[in-house]
Amino acid sequence: MSSGQTCTTPCAYELRRGDDLRVDFKLEGYKPEYVYVQSRMGGSTFGNIIAGGGIGAVVDGSNGAANHLAPNPVYIRLIPVGGEGEAVLLDKKGEVVMTVAEHNAKVGEDVRKGLEEQGVVAKGM
Question: 111 exposed, middle or buried (CB, 10 Å; 0-12, 13-18, 19+)?
């Protein structure tokens, strides 16, 4: 992961909801792949603004408590080396959501900016 953590799947990590990250998948005999995981503002933020007059939203926004990570959890189907097709993201039921390439193209620019702000990658990478 862009956070420096490693594991052998299946595994689970508790991660900060306020940080974007990149999760790299490597398995012998399969093409390596990565998935951008994006920190997104959650719907509870709007409730905090209405109920708390904005103070709760400022606190939750500053510490990432108002955010959630997407996708969460991250399930992918890798492609064997020499195999056809593309790696795909799966939902909790194992159904295909979209290709990993489509997902990364959709959120990639925002996540790369977030990683730059966190100092995880150099600007312009």
Answer: buried
Burial 37-69 (b: 16+ CB within 10 A, else e): bbbbbeebbeebbeeeeeebbeebbeebbbbeb
Confidence of residue 61 (pLDDT cuts 50, 70, 90): very low
Show me where the domains of the chain are located: 21-38+69-118
Q: What is the pLDDT of residues 44-59, one digit of tens each?
A: 444 444 444 444 444 4
Q: Enter the tokens of residue 61.
A: 């926004």
* Residue 108, H or E segment: helix 100-118
Q: Which helix (H) or strand (E) holds 119?
A: none
User: Of 30, 20, 9, nearest to 81 (Cα)?
Assistant: 30
